[in-house]
Write a structure and sequence with these properties.
- The chain is α/β, with parallel strands linked by helices.
- The protein is 39% helix and 19% strand.
- The chain has ten helices and twelve strands.
- It has helices at 2-22, 44-60, 72-80, 91-101, 146-155, 170-178, 189-195, 227-238, 242-248, 260-270, and strands at 31-37, 63-69, 86-89, 104-108, 117-122, 137-140, 160-161, 163-166, 184-188, 204-209, 218-221, 281-282.
- Strands 2-1-3-11-4 form a five-stranded mixed β-sheet, with helices on both faces. A five-stranded mixed β-sheet has the order 8-6-9-5-10.
- It is elongated and about 60 Å long.
- It starts with a helix and ends in a 10-residue tail after the last strand.
């Protein structure tokens, strides 16, 4: 796995350095490192960002490096290190970056505006109420996922579970339920629609739907970028051709979503994060009453 990651990481950096060498006649003003989530680990993301990187590098006189993270845990590490200048962040990561690491939202990402987190059980499960997950094994997504991690843990605050299994992808979480290794899992409605039929003849049922919509992801700019340069990059990105912005998935003239509630969810869940690897899993802060 390390060799595989290293080879890809080399290719991503090589892309940025190749662009820079082609522009060697100009004076460059530092490096901009772009962070993205790339679950599958495929190298097609190089092509997806190639034109945007060239545009941004040319307009800002910068070396552009694309640095993908293959899961949320790795992404959080890079945010904590303030290693990314720009981040194309899904909601959970965006909330962490804004609340803890002084990243500033610039533009909304293209996405599902009515995304909600759901708990899913097998259709033949006897569980009919969220409270019945008490003492059960639950499959969740990785740290940083809004629909698979933060919202479900927030909704289960005060509950004690037998165990939490952390699945690398939403499809893997559904598979754990289909195999009977977990009583329920948390995914988004869109992910259930995309993957649910792939487990036939096993069928799933929605146990609970969170009433709150998950905000759209955002493009963030990091605290390692000087304030005046932040504004210049914002201007450059807002003026990018619409097709170019669409290729990498942001809306140049879109309104940044309100992250106040999302950040409150992240803060509540963070207070119990140290309990999640224990058995049983007590989803409450021992310093506070075990209720919301």
């Amino acid at each position: 796995m390390f060799l595989r990651f290293s080879r890809r990481f080399f290719l991503f950096n090589l892309l940025g350095l190749t662009f820079a060498s082609c522009q060697s006649g100009r004076k460059f003003e530092g490096t901009l490192t772009i962070g993205v989530l790339n679950y599958g680990g495929g190298e097609q993301i190089i092509n997806q960002y190639a034109k945007f990187n060239s545009y941004l590098g040319e307009k800002t006189n910068s070396y552009i490096q694309l640095e993908p993270a293959f899961n949320e845990n790795r992404a959080v590490e890079r945010l904590e290190a303030r290693a990314w200048s720009l981040v194309f962040a899904p909601p959970g990561l965006a909330a962490i970056a804004i609340a803890r690491y002084q990243y500033v939202p610039l533009f909304p990402l293209i996405g599902i505006s009515d995304l909600r987190s759901i708990f899913v059980v097998r259709k033949d499960s006897s569980i009919t109420d969220l409270k019945q997950l008490q003492g059960q094994t639950l499959a969740l997504g990785q740290l940083g996922s809004a629909t698979g991690y933060y919202f479900p843990l927030y909704n289960l605050y005060g509950t004690t579970l037998a165990e939490i299994l952390f699945a690398p992808t939403p499809k893997a979480a559904l598979e754990l339920v289909a195999q009977g290794k977990a009583s329920a899992c948390a995914v988004s409605e869109a992910e259930l629609s995309l993957h649910g039929s792939q487990f036939s003849p096993i069928e799933f049922r929605v146990l609970f739907k969170d009433p709150h919509y998950v905000p759209l992801g955002v493009v963030l700019i990091g605290p390692n970028v000087e304030r005046n340069r932040q504004e210049f990059i914002r201007k450059v990105m807002s003026e990018s051709p619409s097709g170019l912005a669409q290729e990498v998935g942001y809306v140049p003239n879109g309104q940044v979503p309100n992250y106040k509630y999302m950040i409150s969810v992240v803060d509540r869940v963070s207070s119990i994060a140290s309990n999640l690897q224990t058995k049983p899993v007590r989803l409450f802060d021992s310093k506070l009453p075990a209720n919301i």
